[in-house]
Amino acid sequence: MASFRRLQDADLFGKTALVRVDLNVPIQGGAVSDSTRLQRAKPTIDFLRKAGAKVVLLSHFGRPGGKEDLEFSLAPIVPALEQVLGCSVQFAKDCVGPLAQQAVTNMPDGGILLLENTRFHSGETANDPDMAKSIASFGDLFVSDAFSVVHRAHVSTVGIAKHLPAFAGLALERELDHLDQALGNPVKPVLAVVGGAKVSTKIDLLQNLVKQVEMLCIGGGMANTFLFAQGLSVGKSLCEPSLADTALAIMAGAQQSGCEILLPSDVVVAKEFAANVPNITKSANDVSSDEMILDAGPMAVTALIEAMGRAKTIIWNGPLGAFEFPPFDIATAKAATAAAKLTKAGKLISVAGGGDTIAALNLVKAADDFTFISTAGGAFLEWMEGKELPGIACLIDQQKT
To answer: Whose CA is closest to 144, among 401, 367, 399?
Structure first.
């Protein structure tokens, strides 16, 4: 990953920093029910204030559709934000125009101001240059600290950076450094574990990974399509027969680049898709027409753990089975526990991301022992696919000039 500007390099004293954070938090009964994203924004805000800067926060909240909708106002978040930061936070009822300008002008030294939902204006998602110029006029520098939205070319992720010196915040910096450690400049060999329901949602991901990693384990429902492509019966399992040729092409690409593919040699099958239904473990080439594959079998898990032992870096996205329904969470649980144990012993660098992945790792209490967990769903996936992320590209472009 090319270099980008870090806050440590910025001249901050007496400056006003426009900071893109992710305050898209769950709210129940008018109050924030999970402050994780607020906690993630705190180190950057504290760093800026300690260095003598005023902090103006920008964030979206929900999908108001480019118009003012008080159901999606950021105002209810202020009390929780004040509690996390341990200081008062002012609020402006708009993010552009005179209301916002006045609120910025009236900020005290070391003050924090939260501007209203950027998506109350259609110009935000359209990356409107006039809106970007207007918001940029409020500050002296731009700080990007929300990896979860850097795959979007919006005013608050890209547009403002065209008008101000742009820096990565501490949360974004940590995310980028760990992702670079996992796939950009990794300690090899690298093992990628990709699970989930459908191949169709991860074609770009698989095509990129076979060129980047030494070993690729394919699990979850998408493994069924690969088994089917090789002529095996998958019964009533989730499968995408129309993508059989794509699966074969991915496997051919892996062979060409020297990437070892791991598919389940044995599977756990049942006749209905529900928790705790009767099930049996059998060879992957012995699935009956009335059965569905719901998890990887113990031999497949042993092979994956053996691959972890050979790897120096693991990058993980997606569960290995229908982990929401016990006992079809066993393969994911055993593999995650093994990866966590190897990481804790200093034998493996482990990076994981995606909502289902995090839920699965938390279920077996393995997440804390992973080197890094990315909570950014879409951005994490696009990064793994090798796509350019506009909100990162603008930081890198500035560094080049």
So the answer is: 399
- Structure pTM? 0.90
Does residue 401 surpass a pLDDT of 80? no
Question: Would you say 125 and 152 are in contact if contact means Cβ atoms under 8 Å apart?
Answer: yes
- Rg, C-alpha atoms of the chain: 23
Share of the chain above pLDDT 90, in %: 89
* Catalytic residue list: 37, 198, 355, 378
Per-residue pLDDT tens over the stretch 95-137: 999 999 999 999 999 999 999 999 999 999 999 999 999 999 9
* CATH classification number, 186-370, choose in 3.50.50.60, 3.10.410.10, 3.40.50.1260, 3.30.70.20: 3.40.50.1260
Q: Is 191 helix (H, G, I), strand (E, B) or coil?
A: strand
What is the pairing mode between strands 190-194 and 215-218? parallel
Q: Measuring CA to CA, how many Å separate 121 from each of 97, 104, 381?
A: 11, 19, 27
Contacts of 173 (CB under 8 A, 6+ apart): 4, 6, 7
Q: What is the mean pLDDT of residues 85-91?
A: 98
DSSP 8-state assignment for residue 391: H
130 class by beta-carbon count within 10 Å (0-12 exposed, 13-18 middle, 19+ buried): exposed
For 7-171+389-400, CATH number out of 3.40.50.1260, 1.25.40.10, 1.50.10.20, 3.30.200.20 equals 3.40.50.1260
Give the SS3 label for residue 56: strand
188-205 tens-digit pLDDT: 999 999 998 999 999 999
